[in-house]
Amino acid sequence: MSSSVEAITVLSSDGDEFKITVSAAKLSKPLNWMLEDVCFSDDCDEVPTIEVNSKTLVKVIEYCEKHAPRANSGASDSDAEELKKWDIEFMKMDVKDILFHILMAANYLHMEGLYDLACQTAADLMKGMTVSQIRKIFHIKNDFSSEEQEQLRRQHPGCSFD
Amino acid sequence: MSNHLPLEIVEEILHRLPVKSIVKCTSVCKAWNSLITRQTFIYDHLNRTIQAPNHNSSLFFQFRKRRSPNDPPSLHQEETYSLYSINQQTDQFSVERFPLSHLFEPYRYTLFVGACNGLVCSADHSPLESATTIIWNPSLRKYIVLPKPITTCKDIWRGRYYLVRNVDPKYDVFFGFGFDSRNNDYKVVRLMNDRSTQDTPHVEVYSLASHIWRSISVTVPQFFLCNRQWYRPWLSSLFLNGTFHWIVCRYIEGGSGMYYKFILSFDVIQETFRELTLPQQQSNEKAVISRLLPVEGSHSLAVVNHVNMRRRNQRVFCIWVMKDYGITNSWTEIFRLDSGLYGGILAVLALTNSGKVVLILNGGAIVLVDPIKESVEPVGLAKMSEFFVSSFVESLLLLNKEPDVLSF
Fold first, then answer.
1. CB neighbours of B309 closer than 8 A, spacing ≥ 6?
2. Number of residue pairs across A and B with CB atoms under 8 Å?
C-alpha cells in the first residue's frame, strides 16, 4: 500500500461505493488487514466488499471518522468528554432499524469501541422493557408454554417480568 | 443480514444489564434461558462485575433496633436489611429493603455475618440446635438454609437474659463468610467458645459446594470477644484477600485484668488463624472503640478508631488503612473527623471508592461526606442503632441451584 493513499473505497453489501479515510479504517482490524493486503490505489480494479448494508455502513464510517483522530493520537480529557457526548447523540437511533445492524457490523469488523457502545445502548434500552417488548425488538417467538412461564415466575418472585 | 442477533452478541448485551433485568430475560425464550442459567454465564458475569468495581459496587447495610432490658419481648425483633446502591455519576443512593426475620426462629438475634460476591450470610448467633444460618442473594431474593452445625447445645430455657439481650449465658458463637478461590467454593466458618473457660473454641467450616459442616482441628490464638453487652459489630467479620477478620481482645499477662485489642484473621484456603496488630494511636489518645471499616470495592483493610483526646476533652474518629496487606508498619492514618461535626457523628460506617465516607449521625441520619471538600449529602434515615455494613456487588449466584435454593 502506498503511504500517499489517504482514503480507500469499499463496497457495501448492497453494492454502493463508500470512501473511508485510512486513519478511520484503522479502527477496524479486518479493514486494517485489508489495507495491508490489498491494493487500494486509484488504478487498482479491485474494490473490497464489506458485508454490511449501505444504511449501516454510513453510520459505521461516521463513527470511525469521528473517533479516528483520538484513536490515532490520543486526546485530552475535554476531547474525551466531547466524544462521549457525541457517542450519546450518535446512538439515538431506531433499535430494530439500525442498532442491531450496527451491533453485527461492529462485531464483524472487530470494532471494540463501537461494539461496546452499541451493546451498552441496547442494554440501556432493555432495562425498562417488559419481556414481551424485548421479544418484539429481538424478533423472538415465545417458545415457553404457559405452565413453564408460570413456573419461571414462581422461581423468581423477586423479579418483575412485566 | 437477518434480523436475528447471534447469541454471542445477545450474551454481550445481557452482561451489561443489572441482575434483575437479566433474570427477567430468562423468560424471553428457551435459548436465552439456557444461556443465562449456564454456570459459565453466571461466573463470567461475576468476574466482569468484580473487574469493573467503579460501575457496580454498592454498600450493604443491616440496621437493628437496640433493645433495652425494659422492652417487652417481641416475636420478631425489628430489623432491616437494606441494599444501598451508589450511582457513581450522581452519588445517589437507591435503597431496597429485605424482610428476613420470618426465616429465623422467634426471639432470635439475627445478624449479618458477611457479604461476598453478591451473597450474604446471616445467622442468629445462637449455640442452640435450632439456630439458623442462611446464605442469600439479595438481588435474586433467593436463599439456602444451611444444615445444622455439628457442635450445638440442647434447646433448654436459657433465661430472661437470653430473651432480652439475645446473648447466650455460656457460649459465644460467631461466624465468617467468604470465597475460597482455590476450591471455587463459598465457606462459612463458625466459632463457638465457652466464655467461662480459656479453652480453644470449636471451629467448623461449611462449604456451599458440598453443603455440609465439618469440624476442623486448628490452633486458635487465645482471645475473648470485646464488650458483648450492646454493640456487637465484632460478631460479623470482614472478608478480604481470602481472609476473615474480627476485632477481638486478649488479657495482658500478669492477671491485672488489663487487655488489648487485635485483629484475629482466618485464611479461607489454608484454614489457619493469624493475628494482625491494630493501628496504634499516640500516647495522649485512647482508642475507645475500634471497628473494621468496609471499603467499597476495595481490597484494603481499614479500621476506624473512636478516640478520646486526653487533653482537650474531645472525641475524634481516626480512619486508618493498611497500605500493604499484612504489614503492620503500613497502617496509615488517612484522615480524622471530630465527633462533634455535623451535629454529632454516631459512627463511621464505610468508605466509598470515590473517597467519601458514610456516617451515621446522632438522630439516625445516614450521610455521605467528602472529607476534602467537606460536603455533606443526606442518604437516608435509620432509626436503628446497631448496624453492619459491607461492600457489595450484585451477582447471579444461586440462580440455577434449585431445588435446594428457595425464594423469599
1. B284, B285, B315, B316
2. 98
3-class SS of residue B69: coil
Residue B375 domain flag: yes
For B22-54, the pLDDT digits (tens) are 999 999 999 999 999 999 999 999 998 888 755
How many domains, in total, are found in chain B? 1
Nearest to A134 among B8, B9, B25 (CB): B25
Q: What residue numbers bound the domain in which B255 lies?
A: 37-407
* pTM of the predicted model over 0.95: no
CATH code at position B99: 2.120.10.80
**Residue B289: what pLDDT?**
83
Pick from B2, B7, B9 the residue to mutate for testing the A interface (most A CBs within 10 Å).
B9
Closest CB to B17 among A126, A149, A156: A126
Pairwise CB contact (< 8 Å): A157 & B408:
yes
User: Cα torsion for B127, B130, B136, B138, to the nearest 10°?
Assistant: -100
**Considering the domain boundaries, does residue B5 fall inside one?**
no
Q: Which residues partner with A73 through β-bridges? A: none
Instruction: Report if residue B52 sits inside a domain.
Output: yes
CATH code given to domain A7-127: 3.30.710.10
